[in-house]
Design brief:
The chain has 319 residues and is α/β, with parallel strands linked by helices. The chain is 38% helix and 18% strand. The N and C termini lie far apart (40 Å).
Length: 319
């Protein structure tokens, strides 16, 4: 498939396409002229793909990404496979350790085994695989992977299988923020902005731990960029984050406070955050391919403030 005819002809299979990222990605794939098939178990009873249903080029299957019979059937007509189906986040994976391993790793392993080598795979992983980095030294794609959570471990193992299979790109996503039809309020920026809007306060545990951030629409842009530049990018991992958003939790709170001055936060003198990752990240590799994010942290916070005028309740998370 050349870049010039990919949009007109390609059929994209998205597992987990009704999720937080998938709900935004599928809409944009359809708008760009792709045929899209989603496999999802709709475990959160979400209706995030309703706006896609009028599209003739959209198909949806309710099923399990671990079901070999279902996967074989859906792979027959796919040109590009985007495996989004996962139990995402350390708390959810710790709650369902068997599901984390079988969905996050074994289902991806199954896809690599059943797919043709001609089928392209674009697979999201997490830059939490870097675990605890060295102070002041950005993690690059060549840095050692030392995941400290089951979630990170399963995604690192799955990435290795995908890259070993070949004809693939992996995107090591920073902590994602922003609004989606399948909203998640348990992500760090989304959670802190919710608290700033509704509680006007938050208690921060281990507030100096740093991580990188990226808006959900820039994540989707990175997938589309990978499709458009597949031949020059393939068989490598790419960090996807904002270069100016390697922030500690306290620094993040200050950024939110600048937009919402009534927001107050305090660091807890005792207590621990179960998510111990602490690192800064370089995104130079994907930037060198011509990719540029559109959404700053400030723009995303302002979007979330509007989102939380509409979304005013619980039940929008993975745990």
């Amino acid at each position: 498939m050349s870049k010039t005819n990919t949009k007109a002809t390609a059929h994209v299979l998205v597992t987990g396409g009704a999720g937080y990222i998938g709900a935004v990605l599928c809409r944009q794939l359809l708008d760009r002229g792709y045929r899209v098939t989603v496999l999802d178990n709709f475990m959160y009873r979400q209706n995030s793909l309703l706006d896609c249903c009028p599209e003739v080029s959209f198909q949806v299957v309710r099923g399990d990404c671990r079901d070999e019979g279902v996967v074989v059937d859906l792979l027959r007509d796919a040109d590009i496979v985007i495996p989004l189906a996962a139990l995402v986040g350390a708390p959810l994976c710790n709650r369902d350790r068997v599901g984390a391993y079988t969905i996050n790793f074994e289902a991806v392993q199954l896809l690599t085994k059943l797919s043709s080598k001609n089928q392209r795979i674009i697979f999201p992983v997490t830059n939490s695989g870097y675990g605890i980095g060295q102070p002041g030294i950005p993690c690059t794609e060549d840095s050692p992977l030392r995941p400290i959570s089951l979630y990170g471990e399963t995604k690192v193992k799955a990435e290795r299988v995908v890259l070993d299979r070949g004809n693939a790109i992996t995107l090591r996503l920073a902590t994602v923020f922003g609004a989606s039809p399948r909203m998640r309020m348990d992500l760090l920026v989304n959670d802190f902005v919710w608290r700033a809007v509704h509680d006007r306060a938050v208690t921060v545990f281990e507030g100096q731990y740093k991580r990188n951030y990226i808006h959900i629409r820039d994540v989707v842009k990175a997938f589309l960029h990978a499709i458009d530049h597949f031949e020059t990018m393939k068989n490598r991992p790419y960090n996807v984050g904002l270069e100016d958003a390697n922030l500690s939790k306290v620094e993040l709170c200050r950024e939110i406070q600048r937009i919402l001055p009534q927001f107050v936060f305090c660091e807890a003198p005792i207590g621990e955050d179960p998510d111990k990752r602490d690192y800064i990240v370089s995104n130079e590799r994907i930037l060198s391919t011509g990719f540029r994010p559109d959404w700053s942290l400030e723009r995303g916070v302002r979007e979330l403030i509007k989102c939380y005028t509409i979304v005013n309740g619980t039940g929008y998370g993975n745990v």
